[in-house]
Amino acid sequence: MTTRIVELRRGILKKNDELAAGLRERFTRAGVLVLNLVSSPGTGKTALLELTLRRLMQAGARAAALVGDLETDNDARRLAASGAPVRQINTHGICHLDAEMIGRHLDDWAGIELERLDYLFIENVGNLVCPSSYDLGEKIRVALLSVTEGEDKPLKYPTLFNSADAAAITKIDIAGPCGFDRELALHNINEIRPGIRVFETSAKSGVGLDEWLAYMAEQRKVLKG
Amino acid sequence: MHELSIVESVVDAVTETAAAYPGARVTSVKLRVGVLAAVVKESLEFCWELATVGTPLAGAALVVNTVPVVVHCMACGRDTEIEGVQSFRCPNCGELAAELRQGRELEIESIEIEETDASPENALVQGQETK
User: Fold this and answer.
1) Cα A61 to chain center, whole Å?
2) Residue A159: which of B1, B24, B36 has the nearest Cβ?
3) Which chain B residue has its CA at the smallest distance from A194's CA?
4) If interface means Cβ-Cβ distance under 8 Å, which residues of chain A face chain B?
5) What pTM does this model have?
6) Smallest CA–CA separation between B9 and chain A, in Å?
7) How far is Cα B70 from Cα A187, in angstroms, rounded to an integer?
8) CA atoms of A127 and A69, how far apart (whole Å)
9) Which of B1, B58, B63, B42 is nearest to A8 (CA)?
10) Does the pLDDT of residue B119 top 50, yes or no?
11) Across residues A60-82, what is the average pLDDT?
12) Interior CA angle at B73 toward B69 and B78, to 5°?
């Protein structure tokens, strides 16, 4: 018997990372800003995205969305009312989207050309743990947190919040009745992910949307050089 | 709970590597998992048993080495390990530190294999033993 150690030093998610790198290159070449929205179920990703798409379409921007859920195409139908092209990805039990699913759904999406888009949104499966491991080729990962969830969400789920490029606090219109401590929430986000932009939004009242849209426009300019 | 799919990726990669050593048995697999990798060690170990049963990796040990978070401080320029993941501050000067040097790893470090000495007599002896 001979015992031998074989060094591998290989990323476990290497396949996903390679696919994501390929997607990122395609997105950059096409000049489309891709955002990956991540939060718990019920935070209001779809509501914020609904309003975002509507506002972008009104402004003449070209936007599309891929939306992930375990089952149903309810969210895709809701979002499609904005007039933007929307495609549902059903994962049938898988708790996150991965780069392969994104690539596959983009490739056979009739009528969609990345070159003709300004923004592509990916609404991830509602989950604050697993999506943090899977790069989708996005430029900006946005972690969302609603005022009903508690100010300590970033401390409870640091892996996700630490991987975010921006954060959004949703349902800010009901912060008062919820006893939401805004200062504490901002402090906690900053402790976990120092220096990121935080947007305080309400999909009901439209508060914070101007800042959010301006940020995206800015990021798109950076992308286009 | 995506540990099962992560473990399945490990099984695929290790099986592929081990194929280069015909007749050898994989005895252990060593992983490096960062504190911020969003996977749970116990969950990986539990899934490992499920994923390897009935495969050539059955019985191989899974060794998970946890990699702590190291932040780079822009204020004092030092790279330092932090304890816990509740505050990303430089332990030396107390400033917030946005840059990570370590802590997101999710990789297979190495595997240990046992090769039977390939001489024909040995093979025969072994064959008789198993009868």
Assistant:
1) 19
2) B36
3) B98
4) 1-15, 94-96, 129-130, 132-133, 155, 158-160, 162-163, 190-195
5) 0.91
6) 6
7) 21
8) 10
9) B63
10) no
11) 97
12) 85
In the numeric block, which tokens belong to residue A85?
Answer: 């092209």
Query: Do B36 and B97 belong together in one domain?
Result: no
ipTM over 0.95: no
Percent of chain B with pLDDT over 70: 89
Range of the domain at A24: 14-224
The total of structural domains in chain B comes to: 2
d(CA B73, CA A67): 37
In the three-class reduction of DSSP (H, G, I as helix; E, B as strand; rest coil), residue B110 is classed as strand
- The structure tokens listed for A161 are 């919040």
Query: CB–CB of B96/A196 below 8 Å?
Result: no
Tell me which residue range forms the domain holding B97.
69-102
Q: Judge whether residue B123 has pLDDT over 50.
A: no
Q: For residue B125, what pLDDT band results from cuts at 50, 70 and 90?
A: very low
Asked if B115 and A96 come within 8 Å (Cβ–Cβ), the reply is no
Question: Helices A209-224 and A45-58 sit at what angle, rounded to 10 degrees?
Answer: 70
Are B21 and B59 members of one domain?
yes
| One domain, residues B36 and B96 | no
Query: What's the CATH number where B25 sits?
Result: 3.30.2320.50
